[in-house]
Amino acid sequence: MSNDVIPPKERKSQKSKSKDKKAVTGETVKASGEGDGPQDESVQGDEERKERKKRKKERKLKAAEEASTSIDPEAPGESEKKKKKKKKSTESELLAQDGAMAVDSELSSMEKEKKKKKRKRDTEEEKLEGVEHPASEAKKEKKKRRKESPEENTPSTSAGTSSTSDATPSIGTSLVPSATPSEAAAFLAKHSITIHTPPNVPGTIPVLSFNQLDIPADLRSSFEGFTEPTPIQACTWPPALQGRDVVGIAETGSGKTLAFGIPALSRLISKSKYSTSSKQSKASTVSVLVVAPTRELAIQTHDTLSALGAPFGIASVAVFGGVPKEPQVRMLKNANKGKDGLTTRIIVGTPGRILDLMQEGVCDLSGVDYLVLDEADRMLDKGFENDIRNIISSTKPATERQTMMFSATWPEAVRRLASTFQQNPTRVTVGSDDLTANSRVEQSVEVFDDSRSKDSRLLALLRSLSHKKTTTTGASDARILIFALYKKEASRVEDMLRRQGYSVGALHGDMTQNARMDTLEKFKNGTTGLMVATDVAARGLDIPNVGAVINYTFPLTIEDYIHRIGRTGRGGRSGKSITFFTGDLHERSLAGELARVLREGGFDYEGLKKFPMTIKKKEHSAYGAFFRDDIPVPKGPTKIVF
């Protein structure tokens, strides 16, 4: 029917019915004249969201049912119970996902509220900063200490360490701010120091003050009487305390014992803090080995390290020839028993005796991870190279060991030894690679036409030096060291001086070791003011307050002369040396070299000009003049493949 045929009353009734239907089915959004406000709109929006969620759930359920049926649409023997179980599991999974979404939304709202509260607290605390109670400050400090304590308890390791094991903690060197680059450059230039640093290793900044060393307080007692580190100490301590290998080349009397002694003891102290002593009860406790060329130098180094290590329970054993082995064997066997609260951690000795004890199975060096070769050039000159190589091979590998090598010169033999047993060492040279005389020692030469006039001249010289025939214990600058060439000559000069009423002692190879030690001790404490010695006392001995050195007979080499006069002028003090020169026998060929040393030091050498000034070619102690020191020796094989 068309609208023209329907009467107007029926049209109104049809329109009202259609409106009612739309309201019932929810198709219309607005009701006529009612619910036009914003509250009705929000209610309707919530209802629409709920309906959408229901539709999504229904779609997911349908998709899950279709997936389950599509996997096995005609599975024979599948019961209806299994299908119901699958439906329930899918429904529970969907509900769990919805619950997780709701929990996440709740958590996010909770976090927002917490942040707001925190901001309010911060603003309140800022306002009340001036009225903060000391109790709250103490609590904050305690919290900071708790946070920092685990970091302090863990040992730190240096990035540039190549020759130490991972278990060994490194020790820092910065307690007071280190020197600035300009200060470091001025220090290196002043002392003519050259530092060769391996690639990929940070440069070395010298330690200009003892306060810049981060070491235990008891170790600082060794610095008493000194104002600042010596040049070799200032430049070798930083790399040594970081665990790197070091080669130190410096004149005699430059403080090399503390240069390797302080890092060794710092290493032992730090290891004792972090190691478990119960596991090491059966194993050898020795981890530091110092090899020296002479007995006297070994004893001196042993005394220094023992005095420094005693407050920390660290003991040292000195092994050397000339005395019975039994006491040394007993000390090595009882090394880990901790007698008197001390545990033997250090061995100091000469190459021959160390090798003998190793072959007897008494000296165990398998735990040595800190090795020192003191006066390396002297040991090689004396023919100890094979013994040194055997000793080093008994210690830990180079990758797990820190090796320190000190020498007065840098010949090819020492270079070859360093390249074989060290890992990327830092080389510190004070002065030059060649042997140079101590610049603080005033040198003079007296030329004699007749060697028989030496005795009378020696007595006159002692009177001119105002040396008293009897000295008091500990007298300052009262000691005079007289060097002879042969043992019998030393004994004769000693007898002559004793007949003249002088308090004198002798030190040479024909004496027993106990007699040598007794003479040296009396000379050190000032009981005897004069000591006549052969070249056994020329190397490494640190005798305090030696005012002058007299060379009664010139030595066989110019190197021995430089080491002799180095017994005075030690520790930054000045000294004096007087040399008797006759030109007899071997002396005539050494006149040119002696004149060169005096000329370089700025001293007079006019009396030597009557002798030939030619400098003789350097000879090797074993190979003579046919040995060439300028040809680099190729590095040997690192492993043998069968």
Please characterize this protein's 3D structure.
This protein has helices at residues 8-25, 38-71, 80-127, 134-153, 181-190, 231-241, 256-274, 295-309, 326-333, 351-359, 376-381, 385-393, 412-421, 454-464, 487-499, 513-525, 558-565, 591-601, and strands spanning 193-196, 246-249, 288-291, 314-319, 343-349, 370-373, 402-407, 426-430, 441-447, 479-483, 504-507, 530-533, 546-551, 575-581. With 642 residues, the protein is of the alpha/beta class. It contains 18 helices and 14 strands. Among the domains are: 181-430, P-loop containing nucleotide triphosphate hydrolases (Rossmann fold); 441-610, Rossmann fold (3-Layer(aba) Sandwich). The model is unreliable at 1-5, 17-39, 70-79, 126-175 and 276-281 (pLDDT under 50). α9 links the parallel β4 (314-319) and β5. The chain is 43% helix and 11% strand. Strands 1-8-2-7-6-3-5-4 form an eight-stranded mixed beta sheet, sandwiched between helices. A six-stranded parallel beta sheet has the order 9-14-13-10-12-11. α10 crosses α12. The longest helix has 48 residues, at 80-127.
